[in-house]
Specification:
Strand 2 (16-22), helix 1 and strand 3 (47-53) form a beta-alpha-beta unit. The chain is 42% helix and 19% strand. The protein has 265 residues and is α/β, with parallel strands linked by helices. It has one domain (2-253): Spore Coat Polysaccharide Biosynthesis Protein SpsA, Chain A (Alpha-Beta Complex), CATH 3.90.550.10. The termini are far apart.
Length: 265
């Protein structure tokens, strides 16, 4: 079961619902949260920011409540959702999205600070201003303008996973795993009951379902830096991620994700 703690709602119907999922991440959120709150306050965007806890330890939840109260002094339209059990990252995000029926856009950003707050605001603006309404996702493509800093082992595992996704699912995206995505709420709602994955490959399934229904997906290169304390361990989690991709492939080939009607955007 999940429980919402409403800190302060400014808008009854925000245009954008931005979720930051956390699981025993208070120390990381302590660094990223003030920057994100200030960036939202300085923008002219209509955003409700939701911190969605995924069954953290009680001590962590207490810290989260204190942190969210602090952040709300900078940005008031803020909400904390706590869960008594783990639903995994995708489950925490989807629960928050499903609670907000009026938003036009759904988005999420990780709490680790690998993606800075200014980049989050940039992608939110990109989604709203795009001539072709569709999903906008951050991609980690190293360049002088948008540097990507990660250890060699992480870079190799990223390349292998991306190649596997492209080969098995036929989705030609540069990066399905980046922790910043913006999705038209109507497109998500149309496929929501077809999304089964809640773990590390939940966003692969989300993108596959959107692409299967001709939702445009715009890739935006972003600056990104590896942060300590990440939850994904390439060797430990590789088989589970492969199994998830194979489940998605089976559903895709069975036309499970097709929705009628879903407008081609």
């Amino acid at each position: 079961m999940s429980q919402a703690l409403f800190i302060h709602r400014v808008s009854t119907s925000p245009s954008i619902l931005l979720v930051t999922p956390v699981w025993n991440d208070a120390s990381r959120l302590r660094q990223f949260g003030p920057q994100m709150a200030q960036a939202l306050a300085d923008s002219d965007l209509s955003v409700r920011w939701v911190i969605a806890d995924d069954g953290s330890a009680q001590e962590e939840v207490s810290q989260l409540k204190e942190l969210v109260a602090q952040f709300s002094t900078r940005y008031a339209d803020l909400e904390l959702i706590t869960c008594s059990q783990r639903y995994r990252k995708g489950g925490a995000i989807y629960q928050a999205w499903d609670r907000n029926a009026d938003a036009k856009w759904f988005a999420f950003v990780d709490a680790d600070g690998a993606i800075n707050a200014a980049t989050v605001i940039h992608l939110l603006r990109e989604a709203q201003s795009s001539e072709r309404e569709g999903a906008v996702i951050g991609v980690r493509k190293n360049s002088s303008q948008n540097p990507v800093r990660r250890p060699l082992g992480r870079a190799v595992s990223f390349t292998l996973f991306t190649s596997m996704v492209r080969s098995l699912l036929g989705i030609k995206l540069l990066d399905t795993q980046c922790g910043l995505k913006v999705v038209p709420a109507a497109s998500y709602r149309a496929v929501a009951d077809k999304l089964y994955e809640r773990g590390f490959v939940f966003d692969v399934e989300l993108l596959v379902a959107l692409a299967a229904n001709h939702v445009h997906i715009q890739e935006v290169p972003i600056t990104w830096s590896e942060m300590p304390g990440g939850k994904v361990h390439p060797l430990r989690d590789a088989w589970g991620m492969l199994a998830g991709v194979l489940r998605i492939r089976k559903r895709l080939h069975g036309m499970h994700y097709l929705v009628t009607p879903l407008a081609d955007t």
